[in-house]
Amino acid sequence: MRRSVRKMIDEFRLHWRNYVFQSLFATLAVFVVLYFLTLQNAVIIASLGATAFIVFAMPKALTANARNVIGGHVVGLFWGFVFSVIPHATMFGGLVCYSAAVGLSIFTMVVTDTEHPPASGTALGVAITGMHPDVLIAVILSIVLLSLIHHVFKPYLRDLT
Known about the structure:
Distance between the termini: 18 Å
Shape: elongated
Order of helices and strands: HHHHHH
Strand content: under 5%
Number of strands: 0
Radius of gyration: 17 Å
Structural class: mainly alpha
């Protein structure tokens, strides 16, 4: 235990600037999301927060690439929208729709090679709350902002995990 704590301290001392700046980038991205969305969209907010973590704490991961971030969330938006417009009068019908939105978003991301795990949360959130202009704007703006910052600063970002 002492050894692992010592290793964490040494790692932080060596790369503290990365820890600070990458966390600030994530903070900026989440601020944009929160500016456009209310807590009614908590699932979508959480999925974009998870995306910010992947992009800035694990920037070298495949799921942090712009293709995966943008493609995955677009897939999530699509399936969430499809299942938000399907009428479901019973609780069971709603559960089937919400589950199908997640399952089909995963299937589509895997088939199109745009795997981004938090994007399934986007599908779920949109299926539950519906597609509203503020949701569309927040998700698109956030994923473009995250991908742009990731692209520009990629040479300076390091995996923090």
